[in-house]
Each structure stands twice: as structure tokens, then as C-alpha cells.
Amino acid sequence: MNRHFFRRWLHKYLNFTQNPNHDTIVETNNADSAYEFSPLTYQNPCIFYIHPILNYILKEKNISYQKLELIIVDADQGHDDDMEDIKNILSELVQGLNYLLLITDEPDSYLNIIEEINDENGLIVQQIPKSEKKNARGNLILDFERHGGISADHMIRPNMVYLPIYKKPWEISENLDIIVPVGYNTLVIDSIPLPYQSGEYSHYKRFMNDKIDRLDREFRKG
After folding, report:
1. Contact 163, 141 (CB under 8 A)
2. pLDDT in tens, 47-73
3. Which residues of the chain have pLDDT under 70?
4. What is the mean pLDDT of the chain?
5. pTM of the model
6. What is the C-alpha end-to-end distance of the chain, expressed in Å?
């Protein structure tokens, strides 16, 4: 990937983290924003609030948490930082969850978190390899892949909700609505406070700076 565009992306996020009063996190009206977007370097600005975002989506789709059947599509091999994000999100989402399926080709990487989930919540995490993705049963899919291996074409069936975490941009518009890609469409969420609105900006700033630093190191290695 062109280093020039990566540096422009990095500058945009660093600029936001240093100026919390900006009205826009993602420049949705930039004429060349579609050209600049790349799943390989994208850092989802909404991942910090994935739990309330999912709660909103479940309510909109009329899916109760008790009936939630969560599918996690593992990150690409070699993306250890993305795998850490998955583990952190799993730790937050498993409370009260009755069904969890992990689609991964690296099951050994999740042995500790799966054991922890089972010990603390009594939940047995099911696993299948990515080659069997079409056999996945569930109603909410969180796809953490950056490459095109798994997509809505492979996964969506009636009553399934598909959320690509990195393959499409999650945007925050000028009026601070959160725009989430859901399958082939988008969903506008207008009731979730942004970090600097809720008094948690310093936590969010550390979170984003840490992810940017890790991404920069990974990019330089590659």
C-alpha cells in the first residue's frame, strides 16, 4: 500500500485524538475518502462502543439478548492485534450470552479465553474452521477479517445480521450520528454518546493512540 495515503490516514486520527471538539471523526464528505479507505489499515472508531451499538442493533432487529446467537469470524492470520480486540470484546459481550460460535483456523489462540468464558459464565464456545463457514448457525455475525475471505455473500441468510468490522467504514457524521454497515445496507444510530460527550474521552484517546501505534509498527514490519 502507498505509504503516502497511510500517513494521511494516521495524521487524520492523531489530529482527532488531539482535538476532541471536532464535529466529525470520519470525513464522510471528502471527495477522495472512498479511494483512501483500505480494510488493511482501517481502525474502526466505533469499536470502543461496540457493546451499546450492538444493543441498539439488536433492539432495531427485534432480537432479544437471550435469543442472541453470536458468530465471531476470526481475524486474518498474523493480525495478532485484531485478535486481541476480539478477545476483549468477547470478555465484554459474554455476560448472559447463551450461544457463541467462533469461526477460526487458529483455535489454539483462543484456548485461554474460551476456558475463562466457560469457567465464569458456563458458556461452551463452539468452533468451526473457516472452510465450514456456510454451515454456521447464528443470527448476529461480527466479521473481524480485513481481507475478502468471508463476506455477506457467504454468510447472510434470512434473519441474520452481518456486521463487517473492518471491511467497510463505520462513520460518525457531522451531526454525530453513527453510521454502521449492516449487511448490504447501513443503519443510522443517533442515541449513543461519543467519548468526549460522555466524559470518557481520555480513556478513548489512550485506546485509539495505542491502536494507531500498533498499526504503525505492523505496517513498518510489512
Report:
1. yes
2. 878 888 999 999 999 999 889 999 999
3. 1-35, 148-155, 191, 193-222
4. 76
5. 0.71
6. 10
Determine the pLDDT at residue 10. 46
pLDDT for 26: 39
- pLDDT score of 81: 80
Q: Grid coordinates in use for 18?
A: 488531539
| Amino acid identity for residue 59 in this structure | K
* CB burial of residue 148 (10 Å; 0-12, 13-18, 19+): exposed
CB 100 within 8 A of CB 177: no
- Nearest C-alpha neighbor of 143 from the set 104, 187, 115, 171: 104
